[in-house]
Design a protein that fits this description.
The structure is a single chain. The protein has 488 residues and is α/β, with parallel strands linked by helices. The chain has helices at residues 50-69, 72-88, 90-101, 105-128, 161-174, 189-200, 215-224, 237-249, 272-281, 303-315, 335-350, 382-385, 401-408, 424-433, 466-472; strands at residues 6-8, 11-13, 17-19, 22-24, 29-34, 37-46, 134-137, 140-148, 152-155, 179-182, 208-210, 230-234, 254-257, 262-266, 293-299, 354-357, 372-375, 392-398, 416-420, 438-441, 460-461, 474-482.
């Protein structure tokens, strides 16, 4: 049984799960409100329990054999159709996601939602073009083949939910797996819209499913189900550890992207204007970007010159309605998250860290927080060592390259790093010593879908992207045929 669709500012969205090709309601719901105006309830969304989790895994398990038997070309054709439909509906998806999680609508429209379509096309093509490794040894001809692994659970975060869901689901589907997607409860609507397109693309029932709800209620049931053969998660290290325990009990491979505390390293030979402008970009989307360089590490000889430029660039930011093209900083996702960010800054003040600027909630009733810069009293300060996930950066100085690397590597995280220098030799030297899954030099957020993506330390386990993702979502086997075996 399904619920009536809801009107989200002119866009029709289903509040229900999508299981085995059908919309399914739950006996319970949860409220989904807009960060742009917390009094605005967007929908009462179906709240899954272990019952819906079981239904979804059963559907995925039943659909798996036929989906796995399709050729790479046949599976790719479904993904290509889905990509075309995403491109067609970019405007509506961007609008709903803006209302649901407050990312800038222009950014969603121009690059983020379209990236979802590119994900499906890219993995369809990568799967089609796979060339197995072949070699001769010990009198045999060896070939490495991929086997679809089985039902796959994908759990995604509340920031950029549509794009991050496609980033994980596309390679799983291309590899021949069936998928159960659980989006974050703070921003579920764009993933529900994705299921409308899955149905329009005529995916076989059970191949691609969505269940909505809370991690402790439905997420835990999904990741502990022994029929699930792959798990991919993006979220906090605390939740990642719980999922890891559940996966280990069933010997299920899983990948986890668990946030970051990236260094933004500025050397004296850098283009300071460019570095300062890019550093101010770290405040975009309310700082709710795991890849952001939130620890500014600046060579002491140019500290003052950099900070002066950085303050000027920061003051150009506009806090406002994410639907307004003039806005550059969106509100935070939820009152609980705003309280978390405020708590970090309050504790920093108590601990003797210096607030250089910011540290203020914009309005009493809103979810906007001013861009904030904090100079810590110690590298061991909480504000340095823990992910805030808000518009809060720290500022530290270093005297030489060795100290810069030491500071950059001094947190338990290792997702990404940013380096500004005019020296290619230094870029290669420092880049090789930084402990991070992705390192950008004189740029930020430039992504190649074939490159490995993931973190070191508590920033995650495993790699996705390109063939790395397709290998993860597959079971690899080696076929050995004795030389001289007759063909035919």
């Amino acid at each position: 049984m399904s619920s009536p669709r809801v009107d989200v500012d002119g866009v029709s969205v289903s509040p229900d799960h999508y299981i085995n090709g059908e919309r399914i309601a739950s006996s319970r719901t949860f409220e989904d409100r807009s960060p742009l105006d917390w009094t605005w309830k967007l929908a009462n969304v179906a709240r899954a329990s272990s019952v819906e989790a079981d239904l979804a895994v059963t559907a995925a398990e039943s659909a798996f054999p036929a989906w796995a038997e399709l050729s790479l070309e046949e599976r790719g054709s479904y993904l290509d159709r889905l990509a075309d439909l995403i491109d067609r509906d970019v405007e509506d998806i961007a609008h709903v996601e803006c209302l649901d999680m407050a990312m800038l609508e222009e950014s969603l429209r121009q690059r983020v939602i379209g990236r979802g379509a590119r994900n499906f096309r890219a993995y369809a093509e990568l799967a089609r073009n796979y060339e197995p490794r072949r070699w001769s040894s010990n009198g045999t001809e060896n070939t490495v083949l991929r086997m679809p692994a089985g039902p796959t659970v994908v759990i995604t975060p509340w920031n950029a939910p549509f794009m991050l869901s496609t980033w994980k689901c596309a390679p799983a589907l291309a590899a021949g797996n069936t998928v159960i997607l659980k989006p974050a409860e703070w921003s579920p609507l764009s993933c529900s819209m994705l299921m409308d397109l899955v149905e329009e693309a005529e995916f076989p029932p059970g191949v691609f499913n969505v269940v909505q709800g809370f991690g402790a209620e439905v997420g835990a049931a999904l990741v502990s189900d022994p029929r699930v053969r792959r798990i991919s998660f993006t979220g906090s290290p605390e939740t990642g550890r719980l999922i890891g325990e559940a996966a280990a009990k069933n010997l299920v491979p899983f990948t986890a992207e668990l946030g970051g505390k990236g260094p933004f390293v500025v050397f004296a030979d850098a283009d300071l204007d460019s570095a300062a402008e890019k550093a101010a970009v770290m405040y975009d989307d309310g700082g709710q970007v795991c890849l952001a360089g939130t620890r500014l590490l600046v060579e002491a000889s140019v500290r003052d010159a950099f900070v002066e430029r950085f303050e000027v660039a920061t003051k150009r930011h506009v806090l406002g309605d994410s639907r307004d093209i003039a806005t550059t900083i969106s509100p935070l996702i939820h009152p609980d998250h705003l309280a978390r960010v405020e708590g970090f800054v309050k504790r920093a003040k108590v601990n003797g860290d210096t607030v250089v600027f910011g540290g203020v909630t914009l309005t009493k009733d809103g979810l906007w927080y001013e861009p904030t810069l904090i100079e810590p009293s110690s590298n061991d300060s909480e504000i340095v060592q823990h992910e805030v996930f808000g518009p809060v950066l720290t500022l530290q100085s270093f005297t030489d390259e060795a100290e810069a690397v030491k500071l950059a590597n001094s947190t338990p995280y290792g997702l990404s790093a940013i380096v500004y220098t005019s020296s290619e030799e230094r870029a290669e030297r420092v880049g090789s010593r930084l402990r991070a899954g992705t390192i950008w030099v004189n740029c930020f957020l430039v992504r190649d879908l074939t490159a490995p993506f993931g973190g070191a330390g508590i920033s995650g386990i495993g790699r996705e992207g390109g063939d790395y993702a397709l290998d993860f979502y597959s079971d690899l086997k080696t076929l050995q045929i004795k030389e001289g075996t007759t063909r035919g």
